[in-house]
């Protein structure tokens, strides 16, 4: 696991954007496509704006890039709370990404049906080969959750690399999420974390040897030196 610390979120975003560009280049060269998992929330919004800007528009072969979502709120397709709606407006529409390259979650059924259909959709894309995303972007909540792996939820005990639904009492909502084993199969994993408010969470995940994964779920994500990087600003890294 590599820890990168930058003075400002802006420096962090540029470094992470360059890392994504490099990963895309290697993936397309080796396998002909780039499978990218995106994170929701407010933290990655400026990163997405940067990737959609003129500075990066031609640095990634977007026509060979496929987009997936690490988790989603179980709400209607056009609900403002949806991760995919924010990402669509900030990144996908400005880049004119075709719908065939965007793997949205269909929330018209039950949460369990949504999870099952999304798992099947991913499997069909990988054509029954091992599901190894080329790049999986993760955030970190101040309670150390990542994707929709929240503290003390049943999904944290999941051993299958798949998609699961989970009711999160903390936010009083069903969430659909990649399980930790599925995330850990990704070829590259990057945490994007900034701000003083995240410093305690970063410490508990990275350095607190007494911390449990049930209380600090991001500890479930592999620390494999060959695939995992943390991108922190100095404020988020202040307790390390």
Compact description:
The chain has 240 residues and is an alpha/beta fold.
Question: What can you tell me about this protein's structure?
Answer:
The chain is α/β, with parallel strands linked by helices and 240 residues long. The protein has one domain: Rossmann fold. The chain is built from seven helices and nine strands; from the N terminus they run βαβααββααβββαβαβ. It has helices at 9-31, 45-51, 54-57, 83-92, 111-125, 180-184, 199-206, and strands spanning 2-6, 34-38, 65-69, 71-73, 135-138, 163-168, 173-178, 189-193, 228-233. Strands 1-9-8-5-2-3 form a six-stranded parallel sheet, covered by helices on one side. It starts with a strand and ends in a 7-residue tail after the last strand. 43% of the residues are buried.
Please describe the structure with a list of short key phrases separated by commas or semicolons.
single chain, 240 residues, alpha/beta, Rossmann fold, six-stranded parallel sheet, three-stranded antiparallel sheet, 9 strands, 30% helix, 19% strand, globular
**Low-pLDDT segments, ≥5 res:** none
Radius of gyration: 17 Å
The CATH architecture category equals 3-Layer(aba) Sandwich
Judged by helices, strands and strand pairing, the structural class is alpha/beta
Give the overall pLDDT as a whole number.
Answer: 97
* Quaternary assembly: single chain
Question: Which class in CATH terms?
Answer: Alpha Beta
Cα separation of the termini: 14 Å
- What percent of the residues sit in helical stretches (DSSP H or I)? 25-40%
Would you count the extended β strands for me? 9
Largest sheet: 6 strands, parallel
Number of domains: 1
């Amino acid at each position: 696991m590599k820890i990168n610390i930058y003075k400002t979120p802006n420096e962090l975003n540029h470094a992470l954007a360059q890392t994504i560009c490099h990963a895309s280049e290697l993936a397309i060269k080796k396998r002909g496509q780039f499978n990218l998992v995106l994170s929701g929330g407010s933290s990655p919004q400026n990163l997405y704006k940067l990737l959609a800007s003129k500075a990066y528009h031609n640095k990634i072969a977007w026509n060979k890039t496929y987009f997936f979502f690490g988790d989603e709120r179980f709400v209607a397709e056009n609900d403002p709370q949806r991760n995919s709606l924010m990402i669509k407006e900030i990144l996908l529409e400005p880049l004119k990404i075709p719908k065939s390259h965007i793997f949205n979650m269909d929330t018209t059924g039950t949460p369990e049906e949504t999870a099952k259909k999304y798992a099947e959709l991913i499997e069909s894309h990988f054509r029954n080969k091992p599901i190894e995303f080329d790049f999986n972007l993760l955030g970190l909540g101040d309670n150390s959750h990542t994707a929709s792996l929240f503290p003390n939820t049943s999904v944290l005990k999941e051993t299958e690399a798949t998609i699961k639904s989970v009711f999160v009492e903390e936010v009083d909502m069903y969430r659909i999420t990649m399980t930790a084993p599925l995330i850990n199969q990704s070829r590259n994993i990057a945490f994007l974390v900034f701000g003083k408010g995240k410093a305690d969470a970063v410490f508990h995940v990275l350095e607190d040897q007494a911390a449990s994964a049930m209380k600090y779920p991001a500890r479930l994500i592999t620390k494999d030196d060959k695939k995992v990087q943390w991108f922190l600003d100095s404020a988020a890294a202040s307790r390390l």
